[in-house]
Write a structure and sequence with these properties.
By secondary structure, the chain is of the alpha/beta class. 47% of the residues lie in helices and 10% in strands. The two termini are 45 Å apart.
C-alpha cells in the first residue's frame, strides 16, 4: 500500500470541548452554536450518555424473541444458553437475519410504492411521465413483454408484471436472471433464488420466531435468500422504475454541504428516501405563482436542498444541492435558516420536532407509515402530488418571516453525480461503442487495481465522516476505482473527492485513466436503493470478459465503514451472496458468537464466493480490501505486468504461418 498506517488519525476539526470529534468543519461550527440554543442533537445525546453499548446486544447474543427472556447468552458457558436452550450461534443468526428482513422490507416497500406510482402514471393519474423510453423497452424485454405499442400501454403492462414480483409465491423473481449464469447456478445449487420479495421476508421472520429454525447455518441461508430478494428485487425494481419515470441519471454538477443554504430565500430540506414527493416539489418550486407568493413574504426565491437519500435522488437527476448526510439533519435545522424539513420514510430522527422548537423550522411528515409526534402531517399521494407539494411549500414560505438569528456556514463543495451503469458504459465507449471493455482492459493491464464499493450511513459512534474519507483516499492512492452511494457519497463529496480534480490524489494508473476520460476517481451512483446499480456494473464486467465468469472472481470488494441502518445489513448480505467481500466498520451484529461469525467470515466464502469482514480503522479496512483485490488479481493471472515483446520479422512470419 502507498501510505500504510495502523491507527486512526486525528480528524481535521473538533466541535469544541462539548462534542465528540467531527470531521466536517461546517457541522462542527453549527453544533457549537446548537447547544447554546438548547438544540440537542444526536452528537450531544451520544456524548451525554457515553459511548458504551450493551455488549450482548451489540454482539448479537441478547434474545428477546419471547417473554421467557430477555436472555443474555454467553457462548460456551454452561447455563448461559437461552431459557429455551438457544445457543449463541442460533441467537446471533436470528438477530442478524431479523436485521436483514427489516432492511429488505424497507427497500421492498419503497419498490412497491414506486411500482404503484408507475402504474398510475401509465394510466395518466399522476403529474409524472415516462421519461426514459429506451430503458422502458429494455426492461419490458426482460419481462418478456412485446414492445410494439404505445409507451403508456407498455408501461402499464410492465408495471403490472413487476407488481406481481412482490406477492409471488412460487417460481422466481425475474430480475435474478440478470446475474451471470455461473452465479445463478450457485444460487440454484444452494436453493436461495428468491420467489416473491414479500414471501422471503415473511419466511425469514417466521424462521426467527421462537422455536422455529434452530440451525444458524440454515437461518443465514434464508437470510441470504431474503437479501437477494432486496438487491436483485425490491431495490433493483426501485432503481429501474425511477429511472424510467424521472430519467436515468447522467453526470451533473452540483454543490454539497451546509453552505448551500441561502440567506435571502426560503430554504426547504427534503429528507428521506422515496423520490416521488421530491420530484413533485421540484416541479412546484418553479411555479410563477409560488415564486410570487414567496416574494410577497420577503424572500427572493425558493431553495430546495436535499438530505440523506431523497437528496441523492434529486441530486442525480436535477442537480439540486445536498446539505448533508443522515447526521446533518438536525444540524441543518440548528442553522436557524431552514423554513421546513419535509420527510417521508427511513433514517428520519424522531428528535427533529424537538430541535425545530428552538428555531422557526416546521417539520412536515408526509407518509402514513412515518408520523412523528410534534410534527405537522400533510399526507402525500401520487394522485395529488402537485397539490400536496404546493401546500407544503406554502407552509414553508409562511414560516420565512418568523426567522430569528441565522448562521449559515460558508463551507460548500462542488461535486459530479449521476454515474448510472448506462453512464459508465457510455462514458467509456461513446455513443456508438458503449462498452465496459476499456474498464476491463485497464483492470487487466493494472492501471486500475480493482473496484471498491464504499457505501452506507454516517454514524456518530466513530469519527464521523473522517473514516469514509480516509479510507477512500487510501483506496484511490492505491489505484482502486471507488463507486459510492447514499450518505457515504455525500460525505466523500464534501471532501472534494467527487470532482475530476480529485484524480490528483489517485495513484498513477487510476489518475491516468481518470484524466483521459475526464472523470473523478470516485463515482456517485445514487441513493441506497441504487446499490443495485453496483450489482449490474459487476455483472457487466463479467459479461465483457477477461475477468472470470462469475462476480466472485472480479478484483472488487465492498465496504460500509460507518453503517448504522438495518438496510446496510441487507445490502451487505446481498453483496456477499452475490460473491463479494464486504467489510463493516463501527460494529458487527454477531461478534459475541464465534460460530455465527466464523460462518459469515470464513465458511460462507466456500459456498457463495463472498464473505464478511470487520474492522474499525480506515487504514486497516483499506488494507483488507486491497489484499482481497490483489488475491483476485493473482487468481486471474493478471497480478504481474506482462513484458512488452518487440517482434522481429522472423517472429512475425511464425505468427502468420
Amino acid at each position: 500500500m502507498k501510505n500504510p498506517k495502523s491507527k486512526i488519525q486525528n480528524p481535521k476539526f473538533r466541535c469544541s470541548t462539548t462534542c465528540p470529534e467531527i470531521a466536517c468543519e461546517a457541522t462542527a461550527k453549527v453544533l457549537d452554536r446548537a447547544e447554546s440554543k438548547r438544540a440537542i442533537t444526536a452528537v450531544h445525546r451520544l456524548r451525554d450518555r457515553g459511548m458504551e453499548t450493551c455488549l450482548f446486544g451489540a454482539g448479537g447474543t441478547c434474545c428477546r424473541n419471547c417473554a421467557m427472556g430477555p436472555c443474555a447468552i454467553i457462548e460456551g458457558v454452561e447455563g448461559f444458553e437461552g431459557i429455551c436452550g438457544a445457543t449463541a450461534g442460533v441467537v446471533a443468526a436470528r438477530n442478524f437475519c431479523r436485521m436483514i428482513a427489516a432492511g429488505a422490507a424497507a427497500h421492498v416497500d419503497h419498490g412497491r410504492e414506486v411500482a404503484l406510482t408507475f402504474i398510475a402514471t401509465a394510466k395518466g393519474e399522476t403529474p409524472y411521465e415516462i421519461k426514459d423510453e429506451r430503458k422502458l423497452h429494455e426492461l419490458a424485454q426482460v419481462y418478456g413483454i412485446k414492445t410494439d405499442k404505445d409507451k403508456n400501454q407498455l408501461a402499464l403492462e410492465l408495471g403490472e408484471k413487476i407488481l406481481e414480483e412482490f406477492g409471488r409465491q412460487q417460481g422466481e423473481i425475474r430480475l435474478i436472471r440478470r446475474a451471470p449464469q455461473k452465479r445463478q447456478e450457485v444460487w440454484e445449487k444452494l436453493g436461495v433464488i428468491p420467489r416473491g420479495t414479500d414471501r422471503e421476508i415473511v419466511d425469514l421472520m417466521h424462521r426467527t420466531h421462537m422455536g422455529t429454525d434452530q440451525d444458524y447455518r440454515n437461518l443465514i441461508h434464508q437470510g441470504t435468500r431474503c437479501a437477494l430478494a432486496d438487491g436483485w428485487g425490491g431495490s433493483m425494481i426501485s432503481t429501474e422504475l425511477q429511472d424510467i419515470l424521472f430519467g436515468t441519471p447522467v453526470p451533473i454538477r452540483a454543490k454539497v454541504n451546509l453552505g448551500v443554504l441561502k440567506e435571502d430565500e426560503v430554504n426547504i430540506a427534503i429528507h428521506g428516501h422515496e423520490p416521488l414527493l421530491p420530484e413533485a416539489m421540484a416541479i412546484v418550486a418553479h411555479n410563477p405563482e409560488i415564486l410570487t407568493y414567496a416574494k410577497n413574504k420577503g424572500a427572493n426565491g425558493i431553495n430546495l436542498i436535499g438530505m440523506c437519500c431523497s437528496g441523492n435522488e434529486i441530486l442525480m437527476r436535477r442537480g439540486i444541492p445536498v446539505a448533508g448526510s443522515f447526521l446533518q439533519q438536525e444540524v441543518a435545522i440548528a442553522t436557524g435558516a431552514l423554513e421546513a424539513m419535509v420527510v417521508d420514510v427511513q433514517c428520519i430522527m424522531p428528535s427533529l420536532p424537538k430541535v425545530a422548537r428552538c428555531f422557526h423550522t416546521k417539520v412536515i411528515t408526509t407518509s402514513p407509515k412515518a408520523k412523528i409526534s410534534g410534527a405537522i402531517h400533510i399526507e402525500f399521494s401520487h394522485h395529488n402530488a402537485l397539490e400536496v407539494a404546493t401546500s407544503i411549500i406554502k407552509q414553508a414560505i409562511d414560516s420565512y418571516p418568523n426567522r430569528r438569528e441565522i448562521y449559515i456556514p460558508k463551507e460548500k463543495m462542488e461535486l459530479i453525480a449521476g454515474f448510472s451503469h448506462e453512464t459508465i458504459n457510455h462514458m467509456l465507449g461513446g455513443a456508438f461503442r458503449a462498452s465496459y471493455r476499456p474498464l476491463n482492459d485497464n483492470i487487466i493491464n493494472g492501471r486500475i487495481r480493482g473496484v471498491a464499493g464504499v457505501v452506507g450511513c454516517t454514524n456518530p459512534r466513530v469519527q464521523a465522516e473522517y473514516v469514509h474519507t480516509t479510507l477512500v483516499k487510501e483506496l484511490i492512492a492505491n489505484n482502486v476505482l471507488v463507486l459510492t452511494t447514499g450518505c457515504a457519497a455525500t460525505t466523500l463529496a464534501k471532501e472534494g473527492l467527487l470532482i475530476p480534480e480529485a484524480a490528483a490524489q489517485a495513484g498513477p494508473g487510476l489518475r491516468e485513466v481518470c484524466e483521459a476520460v475526464g472523470m473523478p476517481p470516485v463515482l456517485h451512483m445514487g441513493s441506497c436503493v441504487d446499490n443495485s446499480r453496483l450489482l449490474i456494473s459487476a455483472t457487466e464486467i463479467v459479461k465483457e470478459g477477461g475477468l472470470g465468469d462469475d462476480i466472485y472472481q472480479i478484483p472488487a470488494a465492498g465496504c460500509a465503514p460507518e453503517w448504522m441502518s438495518e438496510k446496510a445489513v441487507a445490502i451487505g448480505q446481498y453483496f456477499v451472496g452475490s460473491g463479494l467481500l464486504v467489510v463493516f466498520g463501527t460494529s458487527f451484529p454477531t461478534l459475541k458468537s464465534k460460530e455465527a461469525t466464523n460462518f459469515l467470515f470464513k465458511e460462507i466464502e466456500n459456498l457463495y464466493g463472498g464473505m464478511w469482514a470487520f474492522e474499525r480503522d480506515p487504514y486497516e479496512i483499506a488494507r483488507i480490501m486491497i489484499e482481497h483485490i490483489d488475491k483476485k488479481r493473482e487468481a486471474l493471472g493478471i497480478h504481474k505486468k506482462k513484458e512488452r515483446v518487440l517482434y522481429d520479422m522472423a517472429m512475425r512470419r511464425e505468427l502468420a504461418a
